[in-house]
Amino acid sequence: MKKLSLLLLALALLGAPAAEAQKVKAKTKGGAPALATGQAARWPAAKANAWYNARPWMTGANFIPSTAINQLEMWQAATFDPTTIDRELGWAEGIGFNTMRVFLHSLAWQQDPAGFKKRVNDYLAIADKHHIQTILVFFDDCWNKDAKAGPQPAPKPGIHNSGWVQDPGDPASRDSATFVQLRPYVTDVLTSFAHDKRIALWDLYNEPGNSTKGVASLPLLRNVFTWAEAVRPDQPLSAGLWNMGFQALNTYQALHSDVITYHNYGDGPEQQRLIEALQTHGRPLICTEYMARPRNSRFANVLPVLKKYHVAAINWGLVAGKTNTKYAWDTPLTDGSEPAEWFHEVFRTDGTPYRQDEVDFIKKLNTK
User: Residue 140: phi, psi to the nearest 5?
Assistant: First the structure.
């Protein structure tokens, strides 16, 4: 959710084909022995490219209904809101979006595994009705570290993602003793939906190392890939590159992902430079976060670049709501007033576009 630096790309990504021969022993505690993860468990590039080329150009948004402040409010039984989800995904369908990226949360599963999976299935049914596939995200190092089940806080006026929560949080994400509690969650969800054609991709870990964690997130990253590889669902696995200063994390992510996913909140030329660097991996590219208007990451100057290079385009935000992501990351408006320019989001809560010219442009590119 934060910016992607282009510092020392070639060094940080270590994208030379010879590097793909590396194998990394992932460590687990309290469960089955760890797999020796490496390229034997990863899709061959030819399979990844065949998967991608069989699909239409993937465009869409990171989605949470406007009535949810965070992942728990989206998925817990008391606040799951299929009516709003249906309405808002209908607006997405109307401008040609065909893919949504959606964050799960382990605490919602721990409360009631069967109920949680039913709600995921209900969401997927609604999305499928609107001809939308879904990228599901497991872990996340962004924003508030103390997630708690139950009623979630009200938004803090004018503060971007004031209630978004990490998963599993801090210090849990650094503590390998807690990983034994996370493996059943990942295994159960992946196994339950391993053959579900409504799911496009499993995004195993959002922005590992964020919130000052750095390389401390590497053990959990290794473990979640090991658990996912043990299930080996029909859909590809990935974890997105987002900070090019994190060499150890980037190397592991890039060399274990079936398809290369990444975040970039730069302008069109910066997006193009990053694409050209990532193309050295010879795998499909999916930009799972972009579009921050005041940073000059806009639909008008970035979406055409992504389409030109046939890179999947998933912007941050669909409908302005309780997440407050129309406000900038580091520029709060604590009186809750309207920002001079929205940071993220495409629609207002009544379904009218924030900018009609933008939605017309999106629809045009999606129908060409």
Answer: -160, 130
Q: What six digits make up the tokens of 123?
A: 């969401």
Any residues with CB less than 8 A from the CB of 46 and at least 6 apart, and which?
none
Q: Which two tokens stand for residue 93?
A: 């369908």
Tell me the H-state helices in the chain.
9-13, 45-53, 71-75, 82-94, 106-111, 113-129, 179-192, 218-231, 247-256, 268-278, 299-308, 356-367
Q: For residues 89 and 131, what is the distance between their CA atoms, to the nearest angstrom?
A: 9
pTM for the whole structure: 0.91
Give backbone dihedrals phi and psi of 289, rounded to 5 degrees, phi first: -150, 130
The two three-digit tokens of residue 77, written as one number: 């039984």
Query: How many residues are recorded in the chain?
Result: 368
Residue partners of 192: CB distance under 8 A and separation at least 6? 117
Structure tokens at 134: 């879904």
Q: Which domains does the chain have, with CATH numbers?
A: 9-15+28-367 (3.20.20.80)
Residue 31 region by backbone torsions, left for phi larger than 0, else alpha for psi between -120 and 50, else beta: beta
Asked if residue 292 lies in contact with residue 265, where contact means CB atoms within 8 angstroms, the answer is yes
Task: Give the whole-angstrom CA distance, residue 34 versus residue 29.
Answer: 9
Instruction: Let me know: does 251 contact 218? Beta carbons within 8 Å.
Output: no
d(CA 57, CA 40): 28
User: Which residue in this structure is represented by tokens 């990253």?
Assistant: 221
Angle (deg, nearest 10), helices 299-308 and 356-367 = 10
| Contact status, residue 133 vs residue 167, Cβ threshold 8 Å | no
Type of residue found at 72 = L
Where are the extended beta strands (E) located within the chain? 24-25, 36-37, 59-62, 99-103, 133-140, 199-206, 237-238, 260-263, 285-289, 312-316
Angle at CA of residue 164, ends 290 and 328, nearest 5°: 45
**3-state SS class at 247:** helix
Helix (H, G, I), strand (E, B) or coil at 279: helix
Instruction: In whole angstroms, give the CA distance from residue 63 to residue 75.
Output: 13
| Chain centre distance of CA 288 | 6
Which pair of structure tokens corresponds to residue 261?
Answer: 């996913």
* Average pLDDT along the chain, 368 residues, taken 10 residues at a time: 43 37 33 40 96 98 98 98 98 98 98 98 99 98 97 98 97 91 97 98 98 97 97 98 96 98 98 98 98 98 98 98 97 96 98 98 95
